């Protein structure tokens, strides 16, 4: 079902009941020639995916949304979209939670409230057979419930506010913020403005973290992200630049 343009922000919106995954749906649409700037929303997902091959539990009541963009930037700059989406999401949620500054982004783009995960972003990009380049920012926000037994401690908006925050309200704010920050990204000086804003919202900056990937883990101080979005961790032996992994904030 196409519900027309998403509130004059230059997006189209396709709402679904249950889908396997809104990211899959966005990629399928891209392959069929969709021009992009399309939001896909589902009420629930039967095969919701998280980062690093994890399952994203997707019962009704939470937000499951994917934004499809075609050729938003040269392919090598695609990872920047994850940071754009992270900023938009953090600021949208600060809007919903009346400026609550306990909201922060954990690298690469998890949204935390008081250190507990409220949601995350799965960025996927692929070259299409017609030569175009498709980027999908898939966003999941725990509005009404969160899974137990997760890698990270988790929470949901209803628990945080003691009231109801609907997926619809979060999406409205997210869509507005996304339009704004996509414009900053397109108009701005490469990645620099995005990087600066992201760092101002970052959880654990200057503190000790541990980063794990493929069974290996390293510990050090979270210094910054570099101009390509890599995580820079300072260890006694020098600086490590990390492209992918799971970050845990350590007690200071
Ligand atoms: C993570 O933190 O691991 C990323 C979670 C991303 C979940 C969202 S829900 C909407 C979109 N569709 C999916 O299958 N995954 C993303």
TrEMBL record:
What keywords are assigned to this protein?
Biotin, Ligase
Q: Which residues form the BPL/LPL catalytic domain?
A: 12-186
- A GO term, aspect molecular function: biotin--[biotin carboxyl-carrier protein] ligase activity
Signal sequence bounds: none
Annotated Pfam families: BPL_C, BPL_LplA_LipB
| EC number of this enzyme | 6.3.4.15
Q: Which reaction does it catalyse?
A: biotin + L-lysyl-[protein] + ATP = N(6)-biotinyl-L-lysyl-[protein] + AMP + diphosphate + H(+)
Q: Which PANTHER family match?
A: BIOTIN PROTEIN LIGASE (PTHR12835), BIOTIN--PROTEIN LIGASE (PTHR12835:SF5)
**NCBIfam families, per database record:** birA_ligase
Q: What is this protein called?
A: biotin--[biotin carboxyl-carrier protein] ligase
Q: What is the lineage of its organism?
A: Bacteria, Pseudomonadati, Pseudomonadota, Alphaproteobacteria, Hyphomicrobiales
């Amino acid at each position: 079902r196409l519900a027309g343009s998403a509130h004059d922000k230059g997006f189209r919106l396709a709402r679904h009941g249950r889908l396997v995954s809104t990211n899959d749906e966005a990629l399928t649409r891209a392959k069929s020639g969709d021009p992009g700037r399309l939001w896909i929303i589902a009420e629930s997902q039967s095969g919701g995916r998280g980062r690093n091959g994890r399952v994203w539990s997707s019962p009704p009541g939470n937000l499951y949304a994917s934004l499809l963009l075609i050729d938003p930037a040269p392919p090598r700059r695609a990872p920047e979209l994850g940071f754009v989406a992270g900023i938009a999401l953090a600021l949208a949620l600060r809007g919903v939670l009346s400026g609550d500054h306990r909201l922060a982004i954990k690298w690469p783009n998890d949204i935390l409230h008081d250190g507990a995960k409220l949601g995350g972003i799965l960025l996927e990009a692929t070259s299409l057979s017609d030569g175009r380049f498709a980027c999908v920012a898939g966003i999941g926000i725990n509005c009404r419930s969160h899974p137990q037994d997760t890698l990270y401690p988790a929470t949901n908006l209803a628990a945080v506010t003691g009231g109801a925050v609907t997926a619809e309200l979060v999406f409205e704010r997210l869509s507005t913020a996304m339009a704004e920050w996509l414009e900053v990204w397109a108009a701005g000086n490469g990645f620099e403005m995005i990087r600066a804003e992201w760092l101002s919202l970052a959880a654990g900056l200057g503190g000790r973290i541990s980063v794990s990937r493929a069974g290996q883990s390293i510990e050090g101080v979270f210094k910054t992200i570099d101009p390509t979005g890599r995580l820079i961790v300072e260890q006694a032996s020098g600086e490590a630049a990390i492209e992918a992994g799971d970050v845990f904030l350590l007690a200071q």
